[in-house]
Structure formats: C-alpha cells, structure tokens
Amino acid sequence: MDGGARAVRSDSALTRRQYRAGHGAGMRPDLFATAAALRSLQPQAVHGTVTGLGGLAITLEGLGPLAAIGDRLRLEPPSGAPVLAEIAAFRDGRAEAIALGPINGLSAGARAVLAPRPALPVSDAWLGRVLDPMGVPMDGQPPPARGALPRATHAPAPPAGQRARLGPRLALGVRALDLFAPVRQGQRLGLFAASGVGKSTLMAMLAGGVAADVIVFALVGERGRELREFIEDDLGPERLAKSVVICATSDAAAPMRREAAYAAMTVAEHFRDQGRQVLLLMDSVTRFALALREIGLAVREPPATRGYPPSVFTELPRLLERAGPGPDGCGGAITALFTVLVEGDDHDEPVADAVRGILDGHVVLDRRIAEGGRYPPVDVLRSLSRTAPGVLDAHERPLVQEARRLLSTYAEVKDLVRLGAYRVGHDPQADQAVRLAPAIEQVLAQAKGEPSDPDQAFGALVAALAEA
C-alpha cells in the first residue's frame, strides 16, 4: 500500500507539472481527478480512550494496530491543557503509556490522539541556547530556527564496521587526566563519584579546557536552582556561545529526564555529521537509568538487579554507543564524558558496573581525597583510560608507570607515616615513595580556571620525580 501511495503521488506530481506546462493533452483524465481527490482528503487522526490511571501508568483502549512502542500521544482532558504521553507497553490488548508532564485534570474517558514520534529540528541556531528535551527554550528567548530535516531522537549507532578510528590525543586541560587517563578524539570516558565530591566542578574544568568546535551539555535530573549557576558561573558567555544545553530538572517526569539524554545525543550527532569535533558532557547517566527504572516499574516490568528492570541495561548501551567517531568520511567525532553517581560510594553497584564495561575508560573521584583538600579529587590508581597505550609517547609512558608505582607504595605506608610508626631505611622503595609522593600530589592539584596542557603536565611530573 505504501509503495502504491508513493506511485500515485509521483504520477500525480508528474501530471500536474505537465498540465501546468500545457502538455497535459493525451494524458488520462482520471489521473487528474484522482490526484485532485487525494489532495482534498483531510488526514484522519488515530485516537483512543483513556480507561485507567494508576501511578505513572495510563491505560488506553481503541488505538488499534497502528500504535507502537515509543509512539507519542496527545491526551485531551475534558478541561485543561493537553498532556503528552508515550506508549511504553501493551498488555491484554490495551496500551500503557507514561505521561511526559503532570496529569492533573486527566480522567478516564479522555481522548488520546496519536502524535508524531519524537524528532528534533536541530540547526546552528541552537548554539548558545538552553532548551528542554522537546526543543522548547528554557532561557526566555524565542524558539531557535528549525533545521531543514528533523532528526529522530531514538536512532541507532553508526554501524560498527563502518565507524572511523579514534582521532589524536585530546588535551583535557586537567593535569590528573592528561597524565593518568589520557583521551583521544571520539573516546567515551566515565566520571564515577558519589554525591558532593566534585563532579560538576570537574565538568566545568573540562568544558573550559577541551578544544572542541561544539559543546553539548545534557543535564539529566539536575537541581532547578543550579541551572543558572552552572550557565552563568561555570560556563560563561564565551563558552555558552558554542554550546547547546539540554536540561530536564529533577521535578520533570521520568520520560522527560530520559529524553534529555537522547535529545543531547541527537544534537551532538547533528554537529558531528557536519564534520565538527563535539564534546558531549552528560550529568548523569545514573539519573538516566533511574528514569528508565521508573518507567519500567510503572508498566510492571519485573525488577531484576537491585530494583532495576532488565530494559535499563538494554537501553544503556543503545545510548552510550551512539557517541564516538562518525562513519568513515564524516570527519567529525563525539568525545563524550559521562558522570556516574555511585550510590553509597559503591563502585560495583549495577549501573556503575554496566557503564564501566561499555565505555573506553573511567575516572574515579574519591571522597577521602576531596576531604584532604586536593582538587580535583581524582584517584589516579583506580582510574584508567583504555586508549592510554596508544596515546602516551615513548618517553611519557615510563614516567606515568613510575608515578603510579610511587603513589601505590605510598598508599600502603601512609597510615604508618601518619602515626609516626614508619622508620626510614628499612625499604628503599618505600623511602622513595614517602619522599616523592607529596610532590606528585602537588602536580595533581589544580584550581578551577587554572590552565594546563599535556606538555606542561608532563614537565611538572618530571620535576616532581627529580626532587631529592
């Protein structure tokens, strides 16, 4: 049927052009009549009825076979504004949807109309803007100009066999990362930390230190009061001009918080496909997973791992794999840094463990280091970049290995040093670590706004290792 409809549209367009040019003689007159009749038809909406409301789930009937998982609905209550919802499940011939906003005023019997699937008309006019996951401005300015072709927010990753290789080393502007967790263009890195350790501060440092054509921020479940603080204090007008901020605050519905991550990834893909180098900063993947858990439990999906339904661990790689280099010949890449909020400082909890296995490296922020006054509180012994062997030069690799060895040895004896029970002379390697580790720690300490690059970082490390 679809092919026939396309053929009719093609034939009718051809006959209209010929008719208008005065060459319609000899053509079948019934084609003209058919084309005119098709143009006069009004599109018919697919609609159903709300039959039940329970918690986050909305039960609907009458949508028929044209509705599918992921389709959007416009729910029309007897009074009040329409409510957007998304179909999340089918059960016993009924559809179950999750609202994208408050459902106050919605009641059984409300009309549900099938709406277009989510797509974003991204354009260069989005640069410098703060938007919600639907592309609606949050900065008080008019809506940005629409792109020529809207992009679907739920899109597959580029085919694995056709993706470009990772690019050259990318300077992050943070000494601890440039030394011990170096990154290449198109790499995906996780920032793992408990609450209140300094993830947001580190993200602000990265936003100011990484050389990128476009920066895309995904603020998923962010505190409402922190949005302007982040934009005005951490980002600033200069970096905002080349950035797109997608935000769904903590009071937004679960589908909106989930959609913030997909929308930000879609925006990043738009600029990557133009051949630009994109830095994607997402805070946080954990809140994305929590939104997925709310949706799954609302439609009665069984909890499997610490209350997380299986679909959560299916969606995580679908999102994270979209970042990285584009297809061969694209020229652009998405270098992505994802924060992971570990619950109770447990770095082996399910979301952290799953994300760590997907990404190309992980950086651990330690509360004890932060309490000791060293910022950023990166635990270099527990941090890893899987691309480090291909990034570090021949003269840099032994420096990093030696620094790691000294820090590891010092970690074993520092309690003895603090208690005054350590005796110099019993272990030469421990003596060296006790002497040099504080100098290495000073190299790792860096104030917010303090500039750095890999050459400066390795120069400072050489000087620290050379101290007597």
From TrEMBL:
Record keywords: ATP-binding, Cytoplasm, Nucleotide-binding, Protein transport, Translocase, Transport
Statement: the UniProt record of this protein carries the keyword Coiled coil: no
Catalysis: reaction(s): ATP + H2O + cellular proteinSide 1 = ADP + phosphate + cellular proteinSide 2
Subcellular location: Cytoplasm
CDD domains linked to this entry: ATPase_flagellum-secretory_path_III
Chain residue ranges for the region called Disordered: 141-163
Chief location category: cytoplasm
Protein name: Flagellum-specific ATP synthase
Species name: Roseomonas fluvialis
